[in-house]
């Protein structure tokens, strides 16, 4: 296992092993297309007879719909049809977003458009179809709805109180899910501990802002009974199932195509009621219907995330040994759990991940997931990780400060030893192999801690407050069926890849994982080129089409490289073996004595070129009569991969953040940021580094800027890019990335996920940096985003 | 969202403009605010009247003892103009604070003043520099001091049928000191609090005619009359700065916004006042 020859592993130069694309920074083949504006996003697709949808959205956080008058809308020029919730309920069955393995979970049935009640501001209530989007919006403006506003439940802290507004009375209360993980005897251990540090942390509700908004075209063709959906999604096969199930079709009657997707971050892996409404309307009309969310709709109806309040305690011995964690997590998820992955996962992840890097004996962590009249929340990049990491690492640095210890020494004392694996964490996570100590060592090679501390002291003397903060983390990647499948969701944990060689010696690979701009197709091309033995330019990749790719899960939870990549490698190696068998027959040589290098059959021992793949292809396809009659010659191979030994391939890493706090204005200036992460085999270092950097930026965004702000009545106040602040390049620091590689032994490729590591650790590292800067002033901040107002308040300046 | 259906008319002279203005007409200059409000359908004018080709509204010149800046001057032009740098250096300093390059390439000074966003830089600069706005209408024009032009939240002294033709700035004398500072969440954002400060610093080190003008903290540019009075005639030393800071509170009545409570804005204004005046203090004072 894991014996893929790379130049480094066999001590050769790149030139000696020209086909070694794994581990190499190959530019993404899709880049020219993306930067030249030649990509095909869903909105670029224009179909004959296509209509455009616009939605009337609820202006109220909670209101009964007494009457909807559509006559004036139907009279607007260009308007073709108006649909209400009742209209769509005739053709579309509602869904309930629960998973069987999340014990006791409950949620209410959700329709594409609500029948009699709107439960968050921004919920789509009425759909207008017209010849253009502008005409559809004119139609929306002409609709009259009689609303009966109801009291809104907006504060998660009161969601379970007696006498509170119960958002779905049939559920009995607002509790969606709760789970407690325990290990050891927390009460006794804490009582006996040398020191207990405790704090309440808040992570701010925010969202993933994609350059391309949610986009869909649904086209039901009555002639062949096919519903073809062009959609910006991460999981086309999941959506195929959803559309079929709820529109009463067979899965084979639904084809989902996603060509280029402009960013996803988890936002585009969920079922949105307005998008299902589009499919239902296309089904009724037999015409294509397009809906492209505008930015206002994105803020009001894309999933939000990370709306948590966490009360946490950590007990330590005098020598800095961590005794245990005791954590109470509360999260508000909006009025419905989001289909089909559910909105309980984030809280569940907090329970799974707190204390992750450390070896300790006592653990108690509870999450309570409650309903609110706000936009639904669900999985966004690094689900739960940034929350668990900020809590864990915030407590670690607090404890170090209280004990007068260096926080890195405290970490080193408690991190799971690099030779302790396999290891099972207190909440029951099984780790195959992590590298906390090696990663910390690597980080300290990169971060000039002594120089920084000297600068910090010098600057403090002149009233400039700088801080250095760290955050170690674990990350869950390569999910098995234990994530969704066992709960009853038809979301594939297995992925496949079909690789074929065409007569000209070029290779085409189709895969069930998907591309949203992060470079999935680039690494698949590298892996296939490496596996077959052809130049990477000779490989074309097909993804994002349920009719033309092997069934699979798509790209989410960091599974593209680890699962899709392994399927690609195995199918490429199978194709290579098949090619060599054919070549052996042609060249009268044992297949084992041959190799394929840069598109040529070579003699393995001497490296001499024997025949080009082009020539082999010509003979197989056009002069097959000259080959032995019983020679197998299928120059196409398919392999599937699913992880079997471990439910998840955990990765690990550690980040450091160096920041300056202006104690007069409360502004934070990011000076420098470092990340070491271990995603197993690095397929493309350039892409992994950029994934990490992008992830760090999103993590810093949530910690400093991004915030979906609601007033107490449930009105969303941040509905434009001027109010919802995304991180911009001018404020971002240089981000240095280093790697430790601990390949997973579950696959030949050995790759684990890399897409979420940056986001997982950045907020905790920044929080610790700010608090390191503020420590001499007796102030600290624990509530994200760390705004100037919060920092000034902590300093007692306002 | 998509714009409502509307008409578009391009005027190539003031005469054409006067004919085009009427019920439901909305002037389009740089469009950096208007186009977004159209997309949100916050405004549904019948016709957009594009004034960007009207020559009378262009150009920067020194005439009659004032710096005249045509209303159509784009922020980017303002930022790189040599006459502006020489005669109204505060404006040159202000331009990099205005949004982002793409917006500065299109937005105009006339548009910014007419829209009168309380957090915008140019209205505050106009007040700080004691500028005069030239308002044109069919058959005539009138001049209005910037201080009188801004009448409330997003409201101005512009009458129906009137447009801003130009802005006239007094020429900066050798003793003028000017600085603009702001605190914004991200570079290019509207300020949480900002200060355009202009004063004369005599050879004797004494301040005359201070015009500290705050933005982002009220319903328009806030000329801090009490803080200004506290500075008038004093040497620019730590005591004078403290006196101005103490007086400032009574000049301000900031609203809460998404960034924080009124107390934060008051605090930030004090900080900005201190930093701005500190930066204008003679080097000997700074060392002390």
TrEMBL record, chain A:
<dbReference type="Pfam" id="PF01315">
    <property type="entry name" value="Ald_Xan_dh_C"/>
</dbReference>
<protein>
    <submittedName>
        <fullName>Carbon-monoxide dehydrogenase large subunit</fullName>
        <ecNumber>1.2.7.4</ecNumber>
    </submittedName>
</protein>
<dbReference type="InterPro" id="IPR016208">
    <property type="entry name" value="Ald_Oxase/xanthine_DH-like"/>
</dbReference>
<dbReference type="Pfam" id="PF20256">
    <property type="entry name" value="MoCoBD_2"/>
</dbReference>
<dbReference type="GO" id="GO:0005506">
    <property type="term" value="F:iron ion binding"/>
</dbReference>
<keyword id="KW-0560">Oxidoreductase</keyword>
<dbReference type="Pfam" id="PF02738">
    <property type="entry name" value="MoCoBD_1"/>
</dbReference>
<dbReference type="GO" id="GO:0043885">
    <property type="term" value="F:anaerobic carbon-monoxide dehydrogenase activity"/>
</dbReference>
<dbReference type="InterPro" id="IPR008274">
    <property type="entry name" value="AldOxase/xan_DH_MoCoBD1"/>
</dbReference>
<dbReference type="InterPro" id="IPR046867">
    <property type="entry name" value="AldOxase/xan_DH_MoCoBD2"/>
</dbReference>
<keyword id="KW-0500">Molybdenum</keyword>
<dbReference type="InterPro" id="IPR036856">
    <property type="entry name" value="Ald_Oxase/Xan_DH_a/b_sf"/>
</dbReference>
<dbReference type="InterPro" id="IPR037165">
    <property type="entry name" value="AldOxase/xan_DH_Mopterin-bd_sf"/>
</dbReference>
<feature type="domain" description="Aldehyde oxidase/xanthine dehydrogenase a/b hammerhead">
    <location>
        <begin position="36"/>
        <end position="151"/>
    </location>
</feature>
<dbReference type="InterPro" id="IPR000674">
    <property type="entry name" value="Ald_Oxase/Xan_DH_a/b"/>
</dbReference>
From TrEMBL, chain B:
<dbReference type="InterPro" id="IPR002346">
    <property type="entry name" value="Mopterin_DH_FAD-bd"/>
</dbReference>
<dbReference type="InterPro" id="IPR016169">
    <property type="entry name" value="FAD-bd_PCMH_sub2"/>
</dbReference>
<feature type="domain" description="FAD-binding PCMH-type">
    <location>
        <begin position="1"/>
        <end position="174"/>
    </location>
</feature>
<dbReference type="InterPro" id="IPR036683">
    <property type="entry name" value="CO_DH_flav_C_dom_sf"/>
</dbReference>
<dbReference type="GO" id="GO:0043885">
    <property type="term" value="F:anaerobic carbon-monoxide dehydrogenase activity"/>
</dbReference>
<dbReference type="InterPro" id="IPR016167">
    <property type="entry name" value="FAD-bd_PCMH_sub1"/>
</dbReference>
<dbReference type="Pfam" id="PF03450">
    <property type="entry name" value="CO_deh_flav_C"/>
</dbReference>
<protein>
    <submittedName>
        <fullName>Carbon-monoxide dehydrogenase medium subunit</fullName>
        <ecNumber>1.2.7.4</ecNumber>
    </submittedName>
</protein>
<dbReference type="Pfam" id="PF00941">
    <property type="entry name" value="FAD_binding_5"/>
</dbReference>
<dbReference type="InterPro" id="IPR005107">
    <property type="entry name" value="CO_DH_flav_C"/>
</dbReference>
<keyword id="KW-0274">FAD</keyword>
<dbReference type="InterPro" id="IPR016166">
    <property type="entry name" value="FAD-bd_PCMH"/>
</dbReference>
<keyword id="KW-0285">Flavoprotein</keyword>
<dbReference type="InterPro" id="IPR036318">
    <property type="entry name" value="FAD-bd_PCMH-like_sf"/>
</dbReference>
<keyword id="KW-0560">Oxidoreductase</keyword>
<dbReference type="InterPro" id="IPR051312">
    <property type="entry name" value="Diverse_Substr_Oxidored"/>
</dbReference>
<dbReference type="GO" id="GO:0071949">
    <property type="term" value="F:FAD binding"/>
</dbReference>
